[in-house]
Amino acid sequence: MKVFITGASGYIGGSVSAALMAAGHQVSGLARSDNVAAALAKLGVTPVHGTLDDAEVLARAAYDADVTINAASAGHRAAAESMLKALANTGKTFLHTDGSSIVGTRARGELVEKVFDEDTPFMPTPQRAARVEIDQMMRGAARNGVRSVVIAPSLIYGLGHGLNPHSIQVPWLIQVAKKFGVAKHIGPGENRWANVHIDDLIALYVLAIEKAPAGAFYYAENGENSMREVCEAISRMLGQGRRTQSMTVEEAAIEWGDGPANDTMGSNSRVRAKRARTELNWQPKERSLIEEIERGCYAVPGVLS
C-alpha cells in the first residue's frame, strides 16, 4: 500500500510512518526543506518536496497514494481542501488529525466537570471553531466519494519513533520544572486532560486505515489526569519530592505563549474514546501517563537532559 503523510517529520506523523513501513507499506512524506528531505530518506520515507501551501504538490501526492494522512496541521484549511479535491470520487482513504482541545474549556487551572465522547454535542471556543469546521468538512467528504476519517488525540505521551520523538505538554512541564527547580501548574492544577500513549495512538491509526467507515470521527484516550497529578509525578521523577507550585496564566504564557497557556496547559479536555473501542475494537495497552513519567522515560540520556 502507498501512503502519503503530511507531518512525516513530526511526532505523530513520524511515528505512524515508522509503523507503516515496518508493516511493509511504502510511505512518502511532505518535506519543506532539503535537510528534512534527506533525513526522511535516511529513514526510508520517500520525500515529497513542498509545504502545506503547495496545493498542486499536495493534490498530486494524495492522488498517487492509496491512503493519505494529514498529521501536519489541524488548522490549515487550504491544504485539507487541496487533498480532498484530488481524492473526490476515488474512494480512497484520507485520515485527518485534529486534537481533543476542540472541546477544551479555558479554566485557568480549575476543574470543569464536562466529559465528552464522540456523540456528545459541543460548542467550540472561538480559538478552535475553525478547526472544528475543517473536521466537519473532512467528514462531509464521505458524501463526495472520499473515505475520510478524523482522529482527535488527547494529550499524547511517550517517545515517538520518527525524526521528532518528543510530544509537547509533558516535555514543556519538565523543562519548567528543571528551570525553576520545581514542577509548576496553572492555578490549582485541578484541570484535567485525557491522555494516550503514542504507541496506542499508532495502533488506532492502523485500525482506522483498515476498517473505519467513511465520515468517522474518533477521540483517542486511555485515561485522564489533572495537571497537578502530572506535575507531582514530574517532581518525583526529578527528585523534587511531590512538591509543586502554582503559577498564573500570565506567568505560564511567558514560558509557552498565550494560546498554549490558556487552551492547553490551563484548560480541561476530558474525552472518552467510545467509538474507537466499539467500532474498531481499539484496545490501548501501554503504560499510563503517570507510570511513564515515574519510570523516567522522559529522563533518558539525550531527552531533555
Topology (SSEs and partners):
Blueprint: E1 2-6, H1 11-22, E2 26-31, H2 34-43, E3 46-49, H3 55-64, E4 67-70, H4 77-87, E5 93-97, E6 105-106, H5 129-140, E7 147-153, E8 155-157, H6 169-180, E9 183-186, E10 192-197, H7 198-211, E11 216-220, E12 224-226, H8 227-237, E13 244-247, H9 249-256, H10 258-265, E14 267-268, H11 274-280, H12 289-294
Parallel strand pairs: 1-2, 1-4, 2-3, 4-5, 5-7, 7-11, 8-10, 9-13
Antiparallel strand pairs: 6-14, 10-12
Q: Largest sheet, if any?
A: 7 strands, parallel
Q: What's the arrangement of strands in the largest beta sheet?
A: 3-2-1-4-5-7-11
Query: What string gives the helices and strands in order?
Result: EHEHEHEHEEHEEHEEHEEHEHHEHH
Number of helices: 12
Globally, the shape reads globular
Strand residue percentage:
15-25%
Structural class given helices, strands, pairing? alpha/beta
Distance between the termini: 39 Å
Helix content: 25-40%
Radius of gyration: 19 Å
- Spans of 5+ residues with little confidence (pLDDT < 50)? 300-305
Rounded mean pLDDT score: 95
Q: What report would you give on this structure?
A:
With 305 residues, this protein is α/β, with parallel strands linked by helices. Helix content is 40%, strand content 20%. It contains 12 helices and 14 strands. It has helices spanning 11-22, 34-43, 55-64, 77-87, 129-140, 169-180, 198-211, 227-237, 249-256, 258-265, 274-280, 289-294; strands at residues 2-6, 26-31, 46-49, 67-70, 93-97, 105-106, 147-153, 155-157, 183-186, 192-197, 216-220, 224-226, 244-247, 267-268. The strands form 4 sheets. The chain has a 7-stranded parallel sheet, sandwiched between helices. A 3-stranded mixed sheet has the order 8-10-12. Helix 1 (11-22) packs across helix 7, helix 3 (55-64) packs across helix 4 and helix 6 packs across helix 8 (227-237). The longest helix has 14 residues, at 198-211.
